[in-house]
Amino acid sequence: MTNFNVIGGPNVSAYPIVHRIGPADLKDALAKGIADFWAIPSSIIFLCLVFPLFPIIGIIFASNALHLLFPTLFGGAPFLQS
């Protein structure tokens, strides 16, 4: 009864099988990830446009400069002046 699993039933082994990961496995996973990225490269919008805003917003909140958030995100004050 020690090998009984509620989901798998009585034929589940007590110990999981552990596989070693080698450099070839890592190279294969990286190649598949790059192929997935280039199949639908919409995440480039996140990487180039959205992700750089996180440190800027973090610095603004940490330094209590919330009133500078709008000008920082939308091009600054020179565009507002004529």
Description:
The chain has about 80 residues and is mostly helical. It has a domain at about 40-75. About 50% of the residues lie in helices and about 0% in strands. It has four helices and no strands. The longest helix has 17 residues, at about 25-40. The chain is elongated. The mean pLDDT is about 75.
Note the topology.
Blueprint: H1 23-39, H2 43-50, H3 53-62, H4 69-73
Terminal residue distance: 81 Å
Spell the H/E element sequence: HHHH
> If you average the pLDDT, what whole number results?
76
What's the number of helices?
4
- Give the low-confidence spans: none
- What is the 3D shape? elongated
Number of strands: 0
**What fraction strand?**
under 5%
> By helix and strand content, what is the structural category?
mainly alpha
The percent range for helix content is 40-55%
- Rounded to an integer in angstroms, the radius of gyration calculated over CA atoms is 25 Å
Assembly type of the shown chains? single chain
Largest sheet: none
Features:
single chain, 82 residues, mainly alpha
What's the short story on this structure?
With 82 residues, the chain is mostly helical. It has helices spanning 23-39, 43-50, 53-62, 69-73. It contains 4 helices and no strands.
